[in-house]
Design goal:
Largest sheet: 6 strands, antiparallel, barrel
Family: Belongs to the peptidase S1 family. CLIP subfamily.
Radius of gyration: 16 Å
Number of helices: 2
Structural class: alpha+beta
Protein name: Peptidase S1 domain-containing protein
InterPro entries: Peptidase_S1_PA (IPR009003), Peptidase_S1_PA_chymotrypsin (IPR043504), Trypsin_dom (IPR001254), TRYPSIN_SER (IPR033116)
Shape: globular
GO molecular function, one term: serine-type endopeptidase activity
Keywords: Disulfide bond
Helix content: 10-25%
C-alpha cells in the first residue's frame, strides 16, 4: 500500500488493482484460477536479477498440496494465511529469487484484476511439484482496511 501526495494518472501501463472480498472459510475464491505473478527476480537459480519486469501465468492450487510438499521436503509450515500457485506436475514457470513482495494478481469473472497474494517463498525457481507460496491478501483484509481508514 502506498499513500500518495498526488493523484495518479492511469495509463495502459499503470492501473489500480482491486482488493478481493473476504473469502469463504475454505479459502477457495481463487482456487483453479490462472493468475499472473510478476517480478524482477532471477529467471533461473543462480542467474542475475532481471532489468525488465517479467510475468508468468500460473494456476492457484489447493494449499494442501503445498502443506504436504513443503512440510515433507523442507519442514516449512504452509498456513491458512498463505495461498499456493504454480505448476504441480510439470517443470513450469514460477517466481524465483528476487521476486519476493511482488503481486499475484487474478482476473476474475467480473473482468477485474484482484490482488490475491504477495510472493513469499518457494522451492527455488519453479521446481517441479512445488508451487510457490504467497501471503494471502484476504487474510489481511481487516488490517488493510483499518490502515486505509486511519491514514486517509
Amino acid at each position: 500500500m502506498l499513500k500518495l501526495q498526488e493523484d495518479v494518472i492511469f495509463t495502459d501501463r499503470i492501473q489500480p488493482i482491486c482488493l478481493p472480498d473476504t473469502e469463504p472459510l475454505e479459502g477457495e475464491t481463487f482456487l483453479g484460477i490462472k493468475c499472473v505473478a510478476t517480478g524482477w527476480g532471477m529467471r533461473a537459480y543462480g542467474a542475475t536479477l532481471e532489468d525488465h519486469l517479467k510475468e508468468v501465468m500460473i494456476p492457484v492450487v489447493n494449499n494442501s498440496h503445498c502443506v504436504e510438499m513443503y512440510g515433507m521436503m523442507y519442514n516449512i509450515p504452509v498456513k491458512h494465511y498463505h495461498i499456493c500457485a504454480g505448476q504441480i506436475q510439470d517443470h513450469g514457470q514460477g517466481t524465483c529469487i528476487g521476486d519476493s513482495g511482488g503481486p499475484l494478481q487474478c482476473n476474475m469473472r467480473d473482468g477485474r484484476w484482484y490482488l490475491a497474494g504477495v510472493t513469499s517463498f518457494g522451492s527455488g525457481c519453479a521446481k517441479p511439484g512445488y508451487p510457490d507460496v504467497y501471503t494471502r491478501i484476504t487474510y489481511y483484509l481487516p488490517w488493510i482496511k483499518h490502515q486505509m481508514r486511519i491514514h486517509r
